[in-house]
Amino acid sequence: MTEATGEAPPIPIRVVLVGLGKIACDQHLSALAKNPSLELVASVDPAAQGRDGLPHFTSLDALFQSDLAFDAAAVCTPPQVRSAIALRLLEAGKHVLLEKPPAATVEEISHLEERAATLGVTLFTAWHSRYAAGVRPAREWLGGKQIRSVAIVWREDVHIWHPRQPWIWRPGGFGVFDPGINALSIATEILPHPLRVTHSALQYPANCEAPVAAQVQLEDSGGLEVSVDLDFRQKGSQTWTITVDTDEGTLELLQGGSVLSTPDGIQASEDEEYSTLYEHFARLMREGRSHVDMAPLRLANDALLLGSIERVEELNV
Ligand code: NAP
After folding, report:
1. Which residue's CA is the nearest one to ligand 1's atom 37?
2. 84 CB less than 6 Å from ligand 1?
3. Greatest CA span in the chain, whole angstroms?
4. Which protein residue has the closest C-alpha to ligand 1 atom 43?
5. 3-state secondary structure of 172
6. What pLDDT does 4 receive?
7. What three-state secondary structure class fits 280?
8. Could you give all domains of the chain from N- to C-terminal order, each with its CATH number?
9. pTM given for the model
10. What integer is the mean pLDDT of 34-39?
11. Residue of 22, 28, 98 to test ligand 1 pocket, by largest number of atoms within 8 Å of CB
């Protein structure tokens, strides 16, 4: 019973983590542990060991063959295998959270969206950067202002942030768009109109099948230009910044969206991205709704499709 209402608290929704790699261990485990509406009941990963007595399976087959009961899954695998896993879970009547990028192609997401609607289960494309502390206030600050230009600079050292992740360099791995798509997810959240790709230049290491750097131009229907500079070869200080020039001054989202600077001052808060993301997932499941947004994936894939290709020095991957 809760003291306030005298009612029994709702039974937690039982969640399985599929893919127990870097992001699952860095963020999903703790965010799930903090949310009383959700209960982590198992993990699935062919390589990783399970955690602290949590039931662990090396494949989805093994999970489904067990008698473990669960309601939902968060799919934190590399993107190349995500949609096949998600489809199997949806067809089994499970709610699904997709880490970003939600799949390798827009077609894969469209199919998952249609199946989730038909089967009456929740599908959530979880663009985690949209839950960074500065993003919502940035969107509110920009409301009604005239935006003159936008510049995105996302430069990081791949060897620090993605060690031992060869999938990033394979087809469907997105290369530098793996972090870059986070910037696109913020831009499509804070800017008022849909964007399209007008120009793209890509640099591919001689030994890789995905780009290590990209310079992309985007435009909205009103002619607003957005420049995007992505680079995985950054040494020293790392940059994840979006600068928006408006008729009432300049807004900057720094450190991946967690710090907001405007002419009114600087706002920075504790990183609660994944806690907020799971609160939203729990709400969607309780309310029987899906939340599917393909806009960042569409932009990344169009930039990869339209981009001119320059071969650059081999990368140690
Ligand atoms: P990771 O460390 O390589 O982890 C992925 C895990 O999934 C690996 O343990 C992998 O096992 C496992 N896996 C592969 N195929 C599987 C399958 N069929 N079933 C179950 N598990 C499977 O990669 P990550 O950094 O966590 O990234 C995963 C996703 O999260 C990516 O889409 C990435 O964009 C996103 N993300 C990453 C970060 C970050 O900071 N790293 C932040 C936000 C979002 P094997 O190693 O044996 O293949």
Report:
1. 23
2. no
3. 66
4. 23
5. coil
6. 58
7. helix
8. 13-126 (3.40.50.720), 129-274+300-312 (3.30.360.10)
9. 0.96
10. 97
11. 22
